[in-house]
Structures are given as structure tokens and as C-alpha cells.
Recover the amino acids of this structure.
């Protein structure tokens, strides 16, 4: 059991010493524990009663040698720890120094932005120029059209295509439903059959009159006489078409109500023989509904775009060209601003890191000096522990010598093995710190100028591309 206890004590003591090696000053020599471990008082009494050491002895006794060994071991552990800490400090100090490359990167930030912006513009300038030329040409064409036709206003916004086609379908359905009630009297399938009989001619009537009003009759509003004549002729032709379609639909109803074998052929023959002769009032109402539907479609076509023929399309082409050009400019500006913000962000990051490095460098120098002080205190504590432990042994020995003279060697402090104390001098480190502080101060003094150069370079690059808002105000666009 005693052997097991000693082994357990040795294992735990070894682990403790290993853990303490990294932080010797946090675990100073415990005089009381060492005195008990080395049994200094009992050994001093036992050897004193035996007259050991002799009064003229020159060498240390066993307990004294054990004390010296313990203290020397602790002092060497302190030195080992100090060497490790010094290497760590020197490594961290080297990492925290401001590098010339970092400072140069900040000082040259505006030049870096210039190169980045030039590279961006080189790849986009030809496209922007081409879009600008297209927009200028379209604006010139629009201006010439306005001057030629004495137009000083903006073109009216056309109806959406969905709404236009919706109105057409609505007119066809309404006319078909109204006509179906008249056709229902002449077909065996009633109202449903009448609707299908009426919707085809109603659709032809509405579609033809709509496109005539949109593309032909509208020229009646042109300033030039020849175009007005063309518009009038188109109007007359459209009216003739509407009247003919109305009479044809009405005669078709008459043929259906008369149970003709071939209603379409009979209606055509009746149109040739007596176009204005209809069987009853309902056929005349059918004629009126057809003419009204065609008239509404004609008015719808004439009002679906700007009232002045040709002005809406040319105005929209110019508008689209200017929008595309200025959208590209806006995208280019956004890209330039992103490049500018990225460069300013890099600049801010360098400044923040430089400040942090200088502050950390100062803190590391303080830590290095504090480590030197901690080492000095630890070595001094070891010397004090040596004196205290030797005093315990020698006092007990002297008290139990039974009149034997006190050894002269008790008046001599044993010499410890010299240790090489690491150099914790911070003079060179402080000189580097002063240099970094000066570099940072210089950089901070120039930072506003660098920012201004980046902003000026941004403005110069972007001002090359003049927007066309002065020629075509965006507030008028759709």
C-alpha cells in the first residue's frame, strides 16, 4: 500500500509540475509544502543531534542539496516559460506591424478606382454611344415630324392592346347578341342558332371598320390636303362598307324568314335587285344595329392612338430609344457606384485594420514588458524560497546540536546554477511602434483627399455620358 501511495503521489506531482511550467509565476514555490515534502525540520533535528554537519564542513547536506535542486528546477522552468512567451510576443509583434504594401494600397486607392472604372467604361462605352446615337436620331426624326406637321404637344398615350382587343370583342359580342334576336325568327335552332348566324358578319363588320378608322380614316386629321382627301375617301368607303354590310345582314334575315332554299344566294340577289327593300321593321332594326356597331368600331379605331396619324408611333419610337439609352446609363452609373463603394470599403477596412494593428502593437509591447517583470518577480520569489527553506533546516539543526559548534557553512548562501535570462528589451519595438503611429497619422491625414479623388474620378467618368432628359423629359414618358 505504501508503494502504491508513493507512485500515486509521484504521478500527481509530475502532472502538476508539467501544468505549472507554462505559468511559473502563477504557481510560486510553496515553502510550507516543500518543507513538508523534504521533511526539513525533522531532518535538521536528526542531523543536528548527530552533529552533522561538522562545524568546519564546506559541502551542503543532503536536505540542503535537495532544496537547491528544487529551486534550480523551478528557476529553469521559469526561464523556459519566459523563452516561450518571448517567442510568442515577437511573433505577434511581427504580425501586427503595418506593412508598406497595406499603406500603399490605401494611398493608391483612387488610382485603383481609376483603373477599375476605365476597364468598366471601355467595355460599355461603345454600347452607350450606339444607343445615344440611336436616341438622337429618333429625337431628330420626331422633331422634324413635329415641325412638318406643326405639333407642339406630346403624343397621347395609346390604349393598352389588351383593352383595345377587349373592346373589339365586346362590340362583336354585343352586335352578335342583338342580331341574334332578329335572326332567331328565321332559323330552327332559335336564339342560339341566330347568334352563331349573326356573330360572323358582326365580327367582319367590326374588325374592318375598326382597322379602317385606325389606319385610313384617321388621315382626315392630317394638315396636308392630299392626306385629308385620302382620309375623306377612306371615310366614304368605310361608310359604304358599313351600309352594304348592314343591308346584306338584313337581306340575309329576310331570306331566312322566307325559308329560302339558299338564303345567302337569295340575299345577294335581293341586294342586286332592290337593296333598300326589306320585308319588315325588324330587318331595318337589324340594319341599324349593324351600322351602329360599325360606327362604334370606326370611332374606337380612330381614338385607339394619338388622333394625329403617325404621331403616336414615331413619338413612342423616340421615347423607347431614349429610355433604353438612359436605362443603360443608369445601369452604368450603378456599376460605377458599386465599384466606388467597393474601393471606399477597402479603404475603410485598411484604416480600421491599421488602427487596430497600432493599438494591438502597443498592447503587445506592454505585455512583453509585463512578462519581463513577471519573470523577474518569479526568480526573486525563488531566491526568497531558497532562503526560507534553508533557514528552516539550519535553524532546526542548530537547535538540536547539543552544544556542538554551529557550522560556518550555515552562514553562506549556496550559489545557484546561473540561468540565461531572455532579452525582453522593448526599445526596438517602441521605435517600430512610433514609426507605425507616424505612418498611420500620415495616412489619416491624406484619407479625405483620397476619398475626394475617388469621388472626383467617379464624377468625371460618369459626366462623359450626358443624359437626354433635357430633350425628352422623363416625366412625360409612360
Amino acid at each position: 500500500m505504501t508503494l502504491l501511495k508513493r507512485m500515486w503521489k509521484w504521478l500527481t506531482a509530475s502532472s502538476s509540475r508539467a501544468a505549472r511550467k507554462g505559468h511559473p509565476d502563477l504557481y510560486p514555490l510553496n515553502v510550507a509544502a516543500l518543507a513538508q515534502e523534504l521533511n526539513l525540520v525533522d531532518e535538521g533535528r536528526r542531523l543536528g543531534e548527530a552533529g552533522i554537519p561538522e562545524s568546519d564542513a564546506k559541502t551542503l547536506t543532503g536536505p540542503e542539496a535537495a532544496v537547491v535542486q528544487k529551486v534550480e528546477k523551478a528557476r529553469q522552468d521559469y526561464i523556459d516559460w519566459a523563452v516561450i512567451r518571448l517567442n510568442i510576443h515577437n511573433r505577434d509583434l511581427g504580425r501586427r506591424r503595418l506593412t508598406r504594401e497595406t499603406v500603399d494600397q490605401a494611398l493608391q486607392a483612387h488610382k485603383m478606382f481609376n483603373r477599375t472604372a476605365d476597364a468598366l467604361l471601355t467595355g460599355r462605352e461603345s454600347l452607350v454611344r450606339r444607343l445615344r446615337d440611336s436616341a438622337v436620331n429618333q429625337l431628330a426624326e420626331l422633331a422634324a415630324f413635329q415641325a412638318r406637321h406643326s405639333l407642339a404637344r406630346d403624343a397621347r398615350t395609346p390604349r393598352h392592346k389588351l383593352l383595345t382587343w377587349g373592346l373589339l370583342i365586346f362590340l362583336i359580342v354585343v352586335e352578335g347578341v342583338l342580331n341574334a334576336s332578329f335572326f332567331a325568327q328565321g332559323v330552327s335552332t332559335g336564339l342560339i342558332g341566330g347568334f352563331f348566324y349573326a356573330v360572323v358578319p358582326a365580327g367582319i363588320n367590326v374588325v374592318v371598320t375598326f382597322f379602317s378608322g385606325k389606319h385610313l380614316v384617321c388621315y382626315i386629321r392630317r394638315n396636308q390636303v392630299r392626306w385629308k382627301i385620302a382620309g375623306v375617301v377612306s371615310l366614304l368607303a368605310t361608310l359604304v362598307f358599313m351600309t352594304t354590310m348592314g343591308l346584306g345582314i338584313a337581306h340575309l334575315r329576310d331570306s331566312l324568314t322566307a325559308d329560302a332554299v339558299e338564303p345567302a344566294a337569295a340575299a345577294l340577289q335581293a341586294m342586286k335587285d332592290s337593296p333598300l327593300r326589306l320585308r319588315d321593321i325588324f330587318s331595318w332594326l337589324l340594319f341599324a344595329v349593324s351600322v351602329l356597331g360599325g360606327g362604334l368600331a370606326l370611332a374606337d379605331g380612330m381614338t385607339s392612338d394619338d388622333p394625329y396619324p403617325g404621331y403616336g408611333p414615331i413619338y413612342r419610337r423616340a421615347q423607347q430609344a431614349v429610355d433604353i439609352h438612359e436605362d443603360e446609363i443608369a445601369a452604368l452609373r450603378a456599376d460605377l457606384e458599386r465599384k466606388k463603394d467597393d474601393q471606399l470599403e477597402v479603404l475603410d477596412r485598411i484604416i480600421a485594420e491599421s488602427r487596430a494593428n497600432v493599438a494591438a502593437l502597443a498592447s503587445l509591447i506592454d505585455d512583453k514588458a509585463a512578462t519581463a517583470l513577471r519573470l523577474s518577480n518569479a526568480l526573486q520569489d525563488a531566491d526568497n524560497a531558497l532562503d526560507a527553506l534553508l533557514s528552516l533546516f539550519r535553524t532546526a539543526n542548530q537547535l538540536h546540536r547539543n552544544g556542538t559548534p554551529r557550522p560556518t557553512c550555515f552562514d553562506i548562501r549556496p550559489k545557484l546554477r546561473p540561468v540565461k535570462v531572455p532579452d525582453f528589451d522593448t526599445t526596438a519595438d517602441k521605435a517600430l511602434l512610433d514609426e507605425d503611429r507616424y505612418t498611420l497619422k500620415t495616412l489619416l491625414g491624406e484619407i479625405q483627399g483620397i476619398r475626394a479623388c475617388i469621388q472626383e474620378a467617379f464624377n468625371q467618368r460618369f459626366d462623359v455620358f450626358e443624359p437626354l432628359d433635357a430633350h425628352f423629359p422623363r416625366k412625360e414618358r409612360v
